[in-house]
Amino acid sequence: MSASDQTSVSGGWLTNQPYLLLSITALCWAGNAIVGRLAAGHIPPITLSFLRWFLAFLILLPIAWQHLMRDRAAIRGSLGIMVIISVAGIGAFNTLQYWALEYTQALNVLLCNRPARWWSRCGRWFCWACG
User: Fold this and answer.
1) What's the rounded Cα separation, in Å, for the pair 35 and 98?
2) Average predicted confidence (pLDDT) for the chain
3) By CB neighbour count within 10 A (0-12 exposed, 13-18 middle, 19+ buried), where does 57 fall?
């Protein structure tokens, strides 16, 4: 199998660029904090969080639609836990981040978010140990 065949099989050029994708992720993460800081005092944190995720929903819906329809039975079966995780993990986190950005600099928020991976692992361990 040649390199060009491998690229076409695995999803294209972009999926084979891990450093580029990781850099884009870091830029989006930092950009979110910077935009949140710029909007602080002008847009309420809950509104900013809602607008951000509604825009992401509109962008991703056409891409994910056929997968959502194919997996709708599994989604319906897990809808309750998906709603809880979404509200707690996405809605609350971003709202609190935007609220914090009203009182501090973007760098401080980014530094406080750094241990999020550790907290996620602790939470996963706790759920596994209790379940």
Assistant:
1) 9
2) 83
3) exposed
